[in-house]
Amino acid sequence: MSISNPEFLAKLKQESLEAEKRFIGNIAGRLGRSATGPAPEHPFRGAPDFWTSYELDREQQISRFMSNWQAAGGFAERASGMSEVSERICRILGELNAGSTIRQNLTELAQLGLEERLPELRHDAWNGLQTGAALRTAEKADAGIVLADYAVAYTGSIVVTSSMDKGRSVSLLPNILIAVIPAERMFTRLGEVMGRIAAIPGEQFPAGVHFISGPSRSSDIENDLTIGVHGPGVAYALIVG
Amino acid sequence: MSTPQGSNVKDRAKTALKDEFLVDAVKFTTERLKNSKKAATAENGNWEEWRERGRQIRLHTIAHLDYYLSRFVENARAQGVHVHFAPEAKDAARIALEIAEHQGAKSVVKSKSMVSEEVHINEAFESIGIESIESDLGEYIIQLANEPPSHIIIPAIHKNRHQIAELLSKEAGETLEPETKILAGFARRKLRDKFLEADIGLTGCNFGIAETGSVVIFENEGNARMVSTVPKTQITLMGMERLIPTWDDLEVMATLLPRSATGQKLTMYMSGITGPKRAQDGDGPEEMHIIIVDNGRSLQLGDPEFQELLNCIRCGACLNACPVYRHIGGHSYPGTYSGPIGAVLTPALNKNAGEWQDIANASSLCGACYEACPVKIPLHDMLVYLRNRKVERGYTAAGEKMAMKGFKMLMKSHKRFRKAVKAGQIGQKLLVRDGYIRSQIGPLGGWTAYRYIPELPKQSFREQWPDLVTEVEKSVQPMAADVKLRMEQIVKARGKGGQHA
Fold it and tell me: In whole angstroms, what is the distance from residue B320 CA to residue B27 CA?
């Protein structure tokens, strides 16, 4: 058995509800309240005021993003349109001797036409309906190709969210990550993206929201930087527009 | 040998100081992290404003923790999370084991979590025959060595590459060269298999976002993403104070935490996990549990001296700044947390002052920890409060108690004090060489083992006083008449008001 049966979970739920009263009651009591209070005033929400008006124009955003991404050990390039992106991906896959790709199941990525351009490679699109099989496909792929939901210039990060068509594994399991970033999805500050994420209604809220700022890394052995410890060791950011 | 040895900080520090690699490695690493932080905060340009905002957010959240925790629980449940409450460490272990046993789990993969160290979750799983594997590279190394972490951010700071190669070679069943690439490559392959086999993924939690019930994890390796993506069940251990109200507030924490920890603008991965996978998602856990742990945290609530301790975001900056930690390393501290935060947190989480040990005394109270702290926790003040409480509750060493009594008796009467100084001036003659006492006889050793005592002067200050007064009177020139007049006028004018520039 790999997940719990409903009776067991119902028993845990019952225990949890009982424990919750005591647990949170204890916190309220220690804070001098007899019961959990109503929503408090929240005067210091988010970034300081000076920061919320900080803006970069599109060109500054792109150059800031690229220098941050490169400083973190990633590769960043600019392309004028999707056909140039396609050319660049073919070049990258060739340079790295990749034998297979997996991509998010998105029209924009399908239109790259990798199957026609590189027929000798194996190409898969993420299929969320095949739980288990999809993950194994991603695990075997050499390169994962994603379309970023957002990007943040100030930290040099892309954001990918999970859904049926956008498996978390695509940006995680293959050793090569290629992220396509339409320039209009680029923002200056983290806060601009946070606000957009928080605004997604509960029932549509993605289970996984991942900010990625370069290749996987570790300095755990004598402070010596190692790239590609668990996640991708090669991280390309291709900015379109 | 760098496992903790000895029941007090002095003994453990002595062991640590004998390990030359450890001493150098701790210095080198803390220096590197400290400099990276310095560069990152300078680059940021408005560090103090971010710091102040971080403090405000944490103060506000903790002051309304009951409300935000209720919101978090409600929103997490709405996304399908099974939430559990663990008043004590043993409750957290019990709940995790119950889930694992029910599922018939054989193995658990873990990402870094300090709470899990508090709970001793690996030992708990292993006690019922479930393999529990650390997947953070540093944590994996020290798990193989059977040692606790010695730094919050770089847990294997005290191991050199040869020791690491030895540990991993044993695991590999072949000799691995002590090269970072080879060693990390082996760990990647080995752990990749473990991720794919594991029944349960266990994570920690940097922040819980109340408005959506999300768990946020900062990391560089991608192992926490693996742990929360591949196994069918995810269990997250969360300290009950980890909350922030909103995603907007996450921007502030994301600005403060990585910069303070490693000097990065953001860690390579920052993941917000909100509930188990959606019905049509092809990956992510099918079942998600969050175990909310108190384990002594609530003792700080409502305590004006210690409530701010709950503001801590576990960045480790205070360790890197601390002159004591930088010399003796993490294993000289008792308990899970080391450095200044550990020196305060470990006793604070423990109700029983009798078990507090002597770690709060191992500090020069220089305040470097406060300066380094991204949410401005006054750790150096707290160390003083701890010392205070220990004395108030009667846990002082017998020798110290006696010495204080003697001191009190002496200071109460100037006659006694004078006699004692006289006796000292005569008695020291046997011990003074070149103006200093170096002898370590009896209680003197407590001081002279580390530095010399200057000899008592031939004449005490009190004895010198009559001569000093005359000398001072002679050397003071009377004030020039015009200056005196001007100053008298200023004083007269004071208080009339209206004329000040």
Answer: 9
